[in-house]
């Protein structure tokens, strides 16, 4: 199975093979700034199964709560968030669900990360694991 995605203007395209390792919402303040929303919605996939197939994303490095680098990849033309590679999770890419094609963004949420930073109006997803922050 191959899942494809792209930015809003289609200058950047990517794909991953197989099933995601997990699906997650991240409520950390970094993701709030990154998305301009209460959280990011992600499919977490092995880096070895993920590739950019068109264009070259721009990057921005932020230091996360962990003290480690969160490398954000985005389209330099339309600004779409594409994926994040976290130093704290070196074997996976966190692909932003909204860019997935063919309804693939409509997935079950299995875990919510950084619930300590969850905004008051964002309610817990029933059945999803709740992780206060990485390492806890």
List the helices and strands and how they pair.
Blueprint: E1 2-6, E2 13-17, E3 22-26, H1 29-35, E4 40-46, E5 50-54, E6 58-63, E7 69-74, E8 81-86, E9 92-96, E10 111-113, E11 129-130
Parallel strand pairs: 3-10, 10-11
Antiparallel strand pairs: 1-2, 2-5, 3-4, 4-9, 6-7, 7-8, 8-9
Family: Belongs to the Gfa family.
GO molecular function: carbon-sulfur lyase activity; metal ion binding
InterPro entries: CENP-V/GFA, Mss4-like_sf
Can you walk through the features of this model?
It holds the Pfam family GFA. It comes from Lophium mytilinum. This is DUF636 domain-containing protein. The protein contains 1 helix and 11 strands. It has one helix spanning 29-35; strands at 2-6, 13-17, 22-26, 40-46, 50-54, 58-63, 69-74, 81-86, 92-96, 111-113, 129-130. With 136 residues, it is mainly β. The chain starts with a strand and ends in a 6-residue tail after the last strand. It has one domain (2-120): Metal Binding Protein, Guanine Nucleotide Exchange Factor, Chain A (Beta Complex). A hairpin with a 5-residue loop joins β6 (58-63) and β7 (69-74).
By CATH reckoning, the class would read Mainly Beta
Range of helix content: under 10%
The gyration radius over C-alpha positions equals 14 Å
Structural class, by secondary structure, is mainly beta
How would a textbook summarize the main sheet? 8 strands, mixed
> How many separate domains make up the residues?
1
**Low-confidence spans: pLDDT under 50, at least 5 residues?**
none
Family: Belongs to the Gfa family.
InterPro entries: CENP-V/GFA, Mss4-like_sf
Protein name: DUF636 domain-containing protein
Keywords: Lyase, Metal-binding, Zinc
């Amino acid at each position: 199975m191959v899942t494809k995605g792209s930015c809003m203007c289609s200058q950047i395209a990517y794909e991953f093979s197989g099933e995601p390792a997990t699906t997650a919402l991240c409520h950390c303040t970094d993701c709030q700034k990154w998305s301009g929303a209460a959280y990011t919605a992600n499919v977490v996939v092995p880096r070895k199964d993920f590739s950019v197939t068109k264009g070259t994303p721009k990057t921005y490095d932020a230091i996360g709560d962990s003290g480690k680098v969160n490398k954000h990849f985005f389209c330099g033309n339309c600004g779409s968030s594409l994926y994040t590679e976290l130093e704290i999770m070196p074997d996976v890419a966190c692909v932003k669900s909204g860019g997935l094609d063919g309804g693939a963004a409509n997935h079950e949420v299995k875990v919510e990360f950084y619930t300590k930073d969850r905004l008051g109006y964002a309610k817990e997803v029933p059945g999803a694991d709740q992780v206060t922050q990485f390492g806890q």
